[in-house]
């Protein structure tokens, strides 16, 4: 790597990253597209392939917005696209393998049509080793940019179109907050809304604090204006997004305004359903529980990643809570919101995890009774502290633990869904079922998928469905009637 490029990178480095200071983050407005770039996409198409979490899904909506302002139109077909962007995820090794598979697959297309611009962005681009590998082994890639400079896409694409060299621009330090970015939302009913960027938690296994930079919150007035605009456009549901939404506002130096305050304000906007993800148990305070207990448009579903049920493992994960503190939080939530549905993320096979420690995770799962859980085998990420920990748990054992965990969760999910038999639930109808176009499908307030028969004009509306046939992962029922969702607040 040459000097010019080196200034854009720093490999994951805990010491350096932890030293990141409180220097101010400025809020910038997205510039209009410069005239020489404005029409370069007219008559051409783009395709964005997205891997990873909701953050990436929403970043892809922003990139789509920028590309459409440049005149490009969307396509789903590789062969029609003049620009292909791969938005990547670095969370586990298998996520990265999928991306390399995709980059390799597109080589044939690039050989046949060298004029197509192939770009790579997202979390993997923030890793030095990945950029090196692309530079040496995948020279058919034309453009690499990271998570902090998405707003630079018009300029970068322009450079890639004009030059022959691979264009690489990755900022190792997070950028400012950019407001007013154009967006093409994938869905007309449900929308993602960023409330903050980055993560300062530094769980020892996790790459995100390095790929997404330090925590920085959008100003409440910008978030609330976006939510009001979505309500005005007829969106029925929003999900507030951040890696650690409970840390919202902690970085403000000019005001005292935290996540609970934001939820309290969003509660008064006339949008029927409001979700949020992801909440870190450590910063989940009673004020937030009180605000959520008002319900209304704040749904009774909380995703509360536990990661492990054993306090020693939680300690080396640097989660900064014990099993007892986690359980106490769960009890406080259930006391104020008795019908709260809790879901979680769990990692098995952490370096050195014993059978006994794993059993603590099983027993936590039993105690909390999650409705669903996303479960993962620990995957070492270069540059994180856990990657240097001694790991004497054989892969066979990790796999077997994952299976046992999944079997337990399956039985709990089944049991929880069974409790809904005969009950009426409110469903936001999203569309035809994937398997059968005669069947409609939608979601409950608690985000459970419900299938039922009904006329197509109900798509986009709220209905009442009686659950007749609960299954492990979905519910089937009978349409009972349409719901009138009253306007909430102002
Ligand atoms: N900010 C969210 C998590 C984002 S990553 C939170 O803290 O809850 C989503 C999930 O991926 C994590 O909750 C964790 O369970 C899992 N994960 C993260 N890093 C991992 C790794 N190195 N190996 C396996 N799973 C991992
Ligand atoms: Fe990763 Fe922990 Fe931050 Fe979640 S809170 S993104 S797991 S470092
Ligand atoms: Fe993956 Fe980046 Fe999200 S690593 S999980 S896409 S923040």
UniProtKB/TrEMBL annotation:
Residues the record lists as binding [4Fe-4S] cluster 1: 53, 89, 123
Q: Name one GO cellular component term.
A: cytosol
* Domain called TRAM: residue spans: 418-481
Q: The MTTase N-terminal domain covers which part of the protein?
A: 44-162
Classification via InterPro entries: Elp3/MiaA/NifB-like_rSAM, Methylthiotransferase, Methylthiotransferase_CS, Methylthiotransferase_N, Methylthiotransferase_N_sf, MiaB_methiolase, rSAM, rSAM_horseshoe
The record's SUPFAM superfamilies line, in alphabetical order, gives: Radical SAM enzymes
EC number(s) from the headed UniProt entry: 2.8.4.3
One Pfam family from the record: UPF0004
From the Swiss-Prot or TrEMBL record, state where the protein is found.
Cytoplasm
Note the superkingdom of the native organism: Bacteria
Q: How does it assemble?
A: Monomer.
Job of this protein: Catalyzes the methylthiolation of N6-(dimethylallyl)adenosine (i(6)A), leading to the formation of 2-methylthio-N6-(dimethylallyl)adenosine (ms(2)i(6)A) at position 37 in tRNAs that read codons beginning with uridine.
Name listed for the protein in its UniProt record:
tRNA-2-methylthio-N(6)-dimethylallyladenosine synthase
**Naturally occurring in which organism (per UniProt):** Marininema mesophilum
**Gene this protein is translated from:** miaB
